[in-house]
Design goal:
This protein is of the alpha+beta class. The protein contains 11 helices and 13 strands. Bound molecules: flavin-adenine dinucleotide.
Length: 287
């Protein structure tokens, strides 16, 4: 299906882009790999596309003090190739490798993935597990939005209508921790039926810290904080971890569709969380 008619603008600066977004029917486009499919299905019908892909200087990964600063036009491919990512948050490269196919990874952006907030997107789970902020610019200036409050609901974030993500600032993996991303995908699109990122620290033979991000299960990616707490003090062994992760889908409005029932998704969440935690714990202290 063809999209409805729309106009196109390619501003040269974020200021110019913000000016164009004064039009209430305008929408930012980055890699286009989520927005264009929606437009073709006529589920989105913006009258003006504001392409931020021509603005110079928005594709980068910079290693700062404890943070990876990732520019708005940085693609999954850029993430896969970044030495800074491999050294300081290798689980992000691991998850980027799991997104779609080479064409999607060459065009889709990490910031676009967060802004789109697809309930089955891979990167939201990893971003929540790492922690950090989304740096957004609007006509009122710049602000940092903590990732813990960023995802509001299905396809909905706490970005305001006329705000643009300029940079995503992810914390690097804590020294000595191990991390893993486990995904069970829909074989045609490779979207996550369920995906789990775990970042685990081990000290004296037991888990001393755990951060987990889950995608594909509820209407938005989330951190199962009760599971994170239950893991602390446990031995990183099969039975102890299995018991600690049982509540990973509790209290979540688990989604069902033609690909997987809610019961199956909740089951996947428990299985993949156990696997991610054990794999991450096995990698801890080996960095
Ligand atoms: C065949 C196919 C398979 C895919 N498989 C997967 C998969 O396995 N896993 C996965 O996670 N994703 C998958 N995707 C989605 C892909 O990762 C998208 O590219 C990504 O989710 C969105 O990034 P984008 O740059 O393409 O955003 P766009 O499509 O350009 O934009 C998406 C939304 O975000 C907004 N937006 C984008 N950038 C910004 C910004 N800087 N500031 C504010 N708003 C912004 C846009 O206005 C729009 O509403 C797949 C897509 C396709 C087409």
């Amino acid at each position: 299906m063809f999209p409805a008619k729309f106009a196109y603008a390619a501003p040269n600066s974020l200021q110019e882009a913000l000016g164009l977004l004064e039009d209430p029917d305008a929408k930012v486009i980055a890699g286009g790999h989520s927005l264009l499919p929606l437009m073709k299905l006529r589920l989105a019908q913006p009258k003006l596309l504001v392409d931020i892909g021509r603005i110079p200087g928005l594709a980068y990964v910079r290693s700062e003090d404890g943070v990876l600063a990732i520019g708005a036009m940085t693609t999954y491919r850029d993430i896969q190739l970044s030495q800074d990512v491999h050294q300081r948050a290798p689980v992000l490269a691991e998850a980027a490798h799991e997104v779609g196919d080479p064409q999607v990874r060459a065009k889709g952006t990490l910031a676009g993935s967060l802004a789109h907030a697809d309930p089955a997107g891979d990167i939201p789970a990893v971003a929540l597990a790492l922690g950090g902020v989304v740096r957004a610019v609007g006509t009122g200036g710049e602000r940092d939005i903590d990732l813990d409050g960023f995802f509001v609901d299905m396809l909905t974030t706490s970005l305001q209508e006329r705000e643009i993500i300029r940079e995503v600032r992810l914390k690097v993996q804590p020294a000595g921790s191990g991390a893993a991303y486990q995904k069970f995908d829909q074989p045609a699109s490779h979207y996550a039926l369920t995906g789990v990122c775990a970042i685990i620290s081990v000290s004296g033979g037991s888990i001393s810290a755990a951060r987990i991000g889950v995608t594909g299960v509820g209407p938005k990616a989330y951190r199962p904080t009760a599971v994170e707490q239950a893991l602390v003090g446990k031995a990183p062994e099969e039975e102890a971890v299995k018991a600690a992760v049982q509540s990973v889908a509790d209290g979540i409005d688990v989604q069902g569709d033609i690909h997987a029932s809610p019961e199956y998704r909740a089951h996947l969440a428990r299985v993949l969380t156990r696997r991610a935690v054990l794999q991450a714990a096995g990698r801890a202290g080996k960095g």
